[in-house]
Amino acid sequence: MQLLSLREQVQLRTGQDPFSQMMRADTGMEFETLGNIDSNDPAMEMSLTIEGLPNESNGQPPNPFAVVYIIIPPQQQNWLQHNHTEMVENNNNPHFLKTIGFGDSGGLEPTMRVKITVFHVKERMTGMMTQIGQVIFTLNDVLQTEDLSLKLALVGNDGTRVGMLSIVSWLNDTHGNTTNLSHDDDEDVFTNIVPAIRGRTMSVKRRSKRLETLKPLCANITTRTFRFETNDSVKLLVHEYMAESKFAFDLPIKTLQLLIEEEKTRIKHLQDLGQLTGQWKAACAVYQDICMSTVTTYTQQMKYLHSYQGCSFKPSSKKADKELEFVPLNLHLQRMTVLNEATESWGAYDVITAGAFVAHSRRARNHGGLKSMLHKLQESYTPEGTLSKVSKVKRACDLVNCVHLLQGEINTLCDRVCHEALRGDSSSLQAATLELEQKVKDLVLDCQSPILQEVAAQLTELHEDSEALAEEQTKQSQGQESQVSPESGTGSAPQAMNWRWTGSCFIKSPTSEPWDMTRVNTEASLVCLTSMVEDLVLNKSGPLDQPKWLGEISPAVIKLKSFVEIICCKVTYFMSFLDLIEHKDILKLFHSIKVRRDIVFSQALTSLVTGLVLHLNALIDNKQVLEQLATLGVVMEIEGLLSCHGDEIPMLEDMLVAVDDLSTVSFQLVLESTQRKSVQLSTNNFTRASLYPDLNRHHVCVTIPLPQASFEKLPDKLQKGDRVSVVPIFFNIGINELATLAE
């Protein structure tokens, strides 16, 4: 009130507003957070240094803070606030790190007048300042110099010199041209500055090239530039970028598509169980209803994200919106590039910032976070044995993964056997066959697992009861019209496990054969193949017989592959029944955990993909980084600020599970084509067998297409399709419940 009163009195006496040439009272040091008013890709930048500022009346050095004002002709009076530097504490000779930009890709106005006013910040908290001095010049004054630098006297309020201001400036290559730019060679690059630099070769910094690489991946890119002088006189130009990831909504949509397919697969597996009776029939029906409901919900959310027209990230104000729950919170890129002006070498350092991976829209106060909910779920699981602490679900996940891993190795060895047969190399053929024999034996041994035998026997017994019940019902309904048979056109209804209704017709079920018989047939097909190889090697009459080997071996190889495929299908089929057994009494809890886990996984996966794609974008020329990806994988190091207090405990528990699930993700780098231009997600047959096993969700592979120039820089292993594993690490900084008070 006193300030406003004084302002009115001065205005009445002088006819002028005293604030027109002063800092705004309502902003103060908030200048430092208002952001750049100039372009993010300026045509020209300046670095400011001041020498010889006077001490304060108490003998202490000042806290200099420079504010830049401009006037663009034909305006002559009203100075517009343009930009500012940072504050330098207790310094008579400040070198301001933050640079000041002018113009944009459209050009530069050389007649622009610039006023730089230097203030002493007396109180940072309140923004109280006093003016030390100022200097006025035009951009043309700078452009006329040989090295684009000026040295001007800083004039105080009484007209005396209070210091010297040194200006070092440079032009930015906003069009991505060569380092040395002659205006005569490129008339349209810097419009409106022809008189100043025509015919001269100027030093131009390639700032825009690093900015251009970000634009396909990020939106709303904001930049800051700083110039450092090191102790050995090396000058470092530092660019800070903040941007919004374009993956923030794209990846959750693709994750939802993947989860919908997972749910549809689970429905199919439950239908494959055939006709069940009693409690199993009811539990199976409820399970299928829950899966169908999940498909419907996820489809609606996916459609909403497709049509979303808001900003390109999810702000904190929308963290509880159910429609956006699969989208990570406040996902941004923070990139710093450091350029050595002498050597032109540079490095890039990325940090991806995001809100904690938490299902804010599904607060579960009674159950805690995901860790507590999963612990409660695991307590309900049946242990593998009387003395075992391992649950049947955990053992089942390990078994499924082991079987599918062996299937991949067996298929690879089968192809190798055929290749060696085609080459006619008997020693290599025998060696490949020996390896194949060992892998098939390992597979058969896994099939004798007690848990697999137990589930197979229980399911067979249920189907026998179902068939007996069906026969009894058939006898009671004699005389009624019989159902059409898929083979003869008349007869009885198809028996369970022999036929399955697809929605339009009956098809033969691959699970109709007894489990023991499947294992015996697999062993028999292996014996047939190994005997055939031995006979061919022992009875070969000459080199002319060797090309015939492939024709004789191929049928046996195909037969072996078929039986291995049937084994894998049956193992998945049996484990689907085990999944039903373990969850039939807790389906609602299981469903809520599954959805919550899907939400936090989507958020974590989106952040991971954003980080790795930008990592490759910045370091594709770094051979050491690429070799590390090929041999060790990628480390995703996450730093959190969650406390162990109040509502943040469930948040921390959600984070733990989300980070743990990222270990089931892998990446594959492929050559970009017209069909593969964007990141794609897919699943394989491996289930989550980590700390919190889950038979309903599988490992995710992220396919990242790269342009040919980038793809050719990859190590041979990655070019051939090897996958990059992920090692997630969560480091939570120890903040307690007093953090809010301290803030």
Q: In terms of per-residue confidence, which ranges show pLDDT below 50 for 5 or more consecutive residues?
A: 23-38, 176-195, 482-497, 499-508
Q: How many beta strands in the DSSP annotation? A: 21
Q: Find the structural class using helix and strand composition.
A: alpha+beta
Kindly state the mean pLDDT as a whole number?
83
Largest pleated sheet? 6 strands, mixed
> Given the C-alpha coordinates, what overall shape results?
elongated
DSSP strand (E) fraction? Answer: 15-25%
Q: State the distance separating the first and last CA atoms.
A: 29 Å
* Separate helix tally: 18
Helix content: 40-55%
- Radius of gyration (CA) equals 36 Å
Region (Disordered): 467-496
Biased composition (Polar residues): 475-495
Pathway: Signal transduction; phosphatidylinositol signaling pathway
Protein name: phosphatidylinositol-3,4-bisphosphate 4-phosphatase
Quick structural summary:
The protein has 743 residues and is of the alpha+beta class.
Characterization of this structure:
This is phosphatidylinositol-3,4-bisphosphate 4-phosphatase. Helix content is 41%, strand content 22%. It has 18 helices and 21 strands. The strands form 5 sheets. Strands 1, 4, 7, 8, 9 and 10 form a 6-stranded mixed beta sheet that branches. A hairpin with a 4-residue loop joins strand 5 and strand 6. The longest helix has 35 residues. 34% of the residues are buried.
Output the keywords.
5-stranded mixed sheet, single chain, alpha+beta
Helix-strand blueprint:
Blueprint: H1 2-14, E1 44-51, E2 64-71, E3 80-84, E4 100-102, E5 113-123, E6 128-138, H2 139-143, E7 149-155, E8 161-172, E9 180-182, H3 194-197, E10 201-205, H4 207-214, E11 218-229, E12 235-245, H5 247-272, H6 278-307, E13 332-340, E14 346-353, H7 370-379, H8 392-423, H9 426-447, H10 450-476, E15 499-501, E16 506-508, H11 515-538, H12 549-583, H13 587-619, H14 623-631, E17 634-640, H15 648-661, E18 665-671, E19 680-688, E20 694-706, H16 708-711, H17 716-719, E21 724-732, H18 739-742
Parallel strand pairs: 8-10, 17-21, 18-20
Antiparallel strand pairs: 1-4, 1-8, 2-3, 2-5, 5-6, 7-8, 9-10, 11-12, 12-13, 13-14, 15-16, 18-21, 19-20
Helix pairs in contact: 5-6, 5-12, 5-13, 6-13, 7-13, 8-9, 8-12, 9-11, 10-12, 11-12, 13-15
